[in-house]
Amino acid sequence: MTDSDGPPRAVLITALVVAIGALGVVLAIATTRHHANPVVVAAVPAPHAQDPACGALVEALPQRLGDYTRAALVQPAPVGAAAWRPAGAADPVVLRCGLERPADFVVGSATQMVDRVQWFEVSQDQRSTWYAVDRPVYVALTLPRGSGPTPIQQLSEIIDRIMRAQPPDPLRN
């Protein structure tokens, strides 16, 4: 084999390194764009979203909830809303503060205590929404199936620290 049979070995190695580097850049951009995509949070009636308790809660929210990372929201975003995205294309965790009382929360409804916060669950297709019902404003946390207990546990600690507890009252809006 002579040198005239093809490009020099150094050129081939350089081309291979450049191609691998370009592939790495493309993958990094694709990953960054997925995480940079803001989360759409639908507007729902939230008559108490401007309440100082909601402002304090949103201010205290962490950047991470277990395997979920805080995500930007599509603007204009509802007041009192926040979201966290997992790695990959799974659904986000969404928090909303200052909502109206959930329609299914009536006298005698079962609640669950998580770290000193009483939650009322409303299940939907592939997700469930948990409402903190023992605080001065309702806080909703929508969890995709398979999210595990970490998001609700971490947020319960923050809610308990930020908002005073009060007896749940299914008659309060």
Automatic annotation (TrEMBL):
It comes from Mycobacterium cookii. InterPro entries: DUF3515 (IPR021903). This is DUF3515 domain-containing protein. It holds the Pfam family DUF3515.
